[in-house]
Each structure stands twice: as C-alpha cells, then as structure tokens.
Amino acid sequence: MFSERRSRKVVFAALGVVATFSCARSPAVAVERISVDAASLAATPSLGIGAAGFEQAVSRVLKQSGRFVSGAPPAGSDINRVQAEVTFARESRMRGEGHDRDRNRAEVGVALELVRLPDGDGSRAERTLAEGTGQHAVSGSDPDAHGAAFSAALEAALQDATQGLALQLDASGKPEAALIADLHASDARRRGYAIRVLAERRRPAALEPLLNDLTSANPDVVLRTIGALVALGDRRAVRSLIQRSEKRDATFMVQVAYALGTLGGDDAEAYLFAVAHGADDTDVRAAAHEAFEELRRKKLVAARP
C-alpha cells in the first residue's frame, strides 16, 4: 500500500517495543475508516490473520489508547482515516539466559498511517506515519503456541505504532518552548518528533540536534534527518551534509544531492558540480546534475529584473 511511498519521502517512524501505554492529553481523534493492506497479510502467513481480523485488531488498539474513536466527525470537520500494513512477521531464536535460553520468539512489525483530509478535501491530505514493532516468546512447539505468540507480538506492535501516532499529534500541537524542552526528553521518539516539528516550523533550535542525528548508525534515521534539514531550510547544514557524504553509499549521496539542491548556496553549487562530473555511480551523477541545474535555474530567475 504505502511501502513504496515511504522510500520516496521522509517519514516519522516509531521504533521499539512497548508493552502498554496510557491515554495522552490531546482530545481523541475520530477515525472515519480503517483500511488494511491485504497484500502485506498475504506475504506474512505466519500471522494467521485475515484482513477483517487485522482491521478489528487495529480498531481495538486505537480505541484502547484513548486517543482515537471510531465514527464520522461532525459536519465541516476534518476527516481522518487510518491505513494499516504489516511490514514483517518472523520467528527468531532468543538469546537469553536461564528460562529464555533456547526459545524462539515471534516478531512483528506494522505501519499505521493517519490520513487527515482538511474539511474533507482529498487534494490536501495530511499524512502521519508511525511504525511499531512487537515481540513475544513462543511457549511451545505446537501450532497454537506459535499462533498465540504472533497474536501477542502483533498486539504489541500495534500499541507501539499507535503510541507513535499519538506522540506525533502531541508534538504538532505543542508551542516552541515545550518542543525545546522535549529535546532533552529521555524518550528517543519524543525527542525525535520535537526536532522534526521544530524543523518544519523552521526554528533554529532544531539545527544542532539534526546535525547530531546525521551520525546515527541507523540509515533510516539519517535519511529522515536529511529531509528534516531540508524542511528547516538552514544553509548552515550544507557543509555538514557535504562532510558526511564522503565514502557513503549511493542512496545517501543521492539524498544529499537533492537536499543541497534545495538548500542552495555557493558551497552546495560547487559540490554538486564536482559530483555531477566526477562520481562513479551513475545515479549519483544524475541526481547531482539535476540538483545543480535546479540551483542554476533558481539563480537565473532571481537575477531577472
């Protein structure tokens, strides 16, 4: 459903395993419709759940969070829909001690995307994506034990993703002072969402945390960070992006090229020219050439009387 779209845009991801969570402060969001990706369920037969069962599980967890309710919103209000997808379902060996040694566990990943249609206008859809993971020990070798473990892991993954949606909704409604306070939160997701909302609002406080995130070992975090830097629009990020592009893979280089093409400046233009004519990878050269030409076009437009 939206797997391909995630590779082409920056998304907020909710990672980690959460057993339970409590209601948050913001008012509940009315969800008019839940749609599920049947293809992702067909690709994960170990879950043993169909589209109807998955939809019911999503609806139940959303309601239990206290942040979402089912039903159409009042007339004239925004319409909210949720799209749900299973990203993986697998069984792995546990590496524990004592009772957990030599046991398997079920691991499940899900993605929930909240689609908000302002005033019901589908052409202005606002999307919020959260990913979640869950795991549960397999208590026996019979099929029922495996099924129970995967059901529990799915429940935990949905709880995790739902909490991610709630945290993002909270962050989007916070004033700048509260977001700056969240930069020091112990919860990594809360801190990450605060950084990205500040970036969307083009607040300088987001720059330093984002530059720090460029050094993350998680490639997804790095790619989302590049997108957030583009949203921030602060040219002070250009040199850091250039420095961190050395000896990186083609995917990273392509994203940096497009980011520099948006941020602009003399350093960005010089770097893109060099990469467009000297990079080994054809995709990297093409991206750098496209970004360079876009910068040149913008300069010509700006120079017109």
Structure description:
The protein has 305 residues and is of the alpha/beta class. It has 2 domains: 3-173, Double Stranded RNA Binding Domain, CATH 3.30.160; 236-305, Alpha Horseshoe (Leucine-rich Repeat Variant). The chain is built from 12 helices and 6 strands. It has helices at residues 3-6, 38-42, 51-64, 143-172, 176-182, 188-200, 207-213, 219-232, 238-244, 250-263, 266-278, 282-303; strands at residues 29-31, 33-36, 68-70, 79-93, 104-117, 126-137. Strands 2-4-5-6 form a 4-stranded mixed β-sheet. A hairpin with an 8-residue loop joins β5 and β6 (126-137). α4 (143-172) crosses α6, α6 (188-200) packs parallel to α8 (219-232) and α10 packs parallel to α12 (282-303). The longest helix is centred in the middle third of the chain and has 30 residues, at 143-172. The radius of gyration is 22 Å and the shape is globular. Mean pLDDT is 85; it is low at 3-24.
Please report the distance between the alpha carbons of the first and last residues.
47 Å
Number of domains: 2
Helix content: 40-55%
Total number of β-strand segments? 6
Radius of gyration: 22 Å
**Overall 3D form:** globular
- Structural class of the helix and strand makeup? alpha/beta
CATH C-level of the largest domain? Alpha Beta
**What's the CATH architecture name of the largest domain?**
2-Layer Sandwich
Unreliable stretches (pLDDT < 50, length at least 5) are 3-24
- Number of helical segments? 12
Cross-sheet strand order for the largest sheet? 2-4-5-6
Provide mean pLDDT, rounded.
85
What fold name goes in the CATH topology slot of the largest domain? Answer: Double Stranded RNA Binding Domain
The SSE order reads HEEHHEEEEHHHHHHHHH
Percentage beta strand = 15-25%
